[in-house]
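Q: My labmate handed me this sequence with no annotations at all. I'd like to see what the chain might look like in three dimensions before we decide whether it's worth expressing. Could you predict it?
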Amino acid sequence: MQRTIVLIRHAKSSWANPLQSDFERPLNDRGKEEAPAMGEQLKKLNLIPDLIVASSAKRTRQTAKKIAKEVGYDADNIKWEEKLYHCIPSVFEEVIHDLNDSVKTVFIVAHNPGITEYVNQLSPQFRIDNMPTCAVVAAKTDEAHWNNFSTAKREVILFDYPGSDADRKK
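A: Here is what I predict for the chain of 170 residues:
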């Protein structure tokens, strides 16, 4: 059974208020435009989630909701995971391990540097230096159970971000 994971870094956030906590930083105007545009791209590619899991930080909440709207996913069903806030790669594995096997496609919205580190562990054929804001990396596997995802053979099928060559061609 094919399973797909779509890892999404939050869209561009605002630094307008230097006294604001990092956790409460919102999206800036560019981020508010790029998140729905990336959701539209995912819909065009027929990458539609059965579940969206996102960090509970403000910028990831906003990004997840904007993408959910574009792909036709009910934002009330987004699963908020505080442990995805600036997490290490093993936390992504924990979240994936605990997914219900009824989920075939999952979107996970999180932060750098952990998301870049994690996507670089998906396949020996895929390496990036940095996951730009609102970037998407999708990988698939034929593994029957999410709790075996960490050891399953995985193939990266998409790397896209706002303004990339791949993004402009679609």
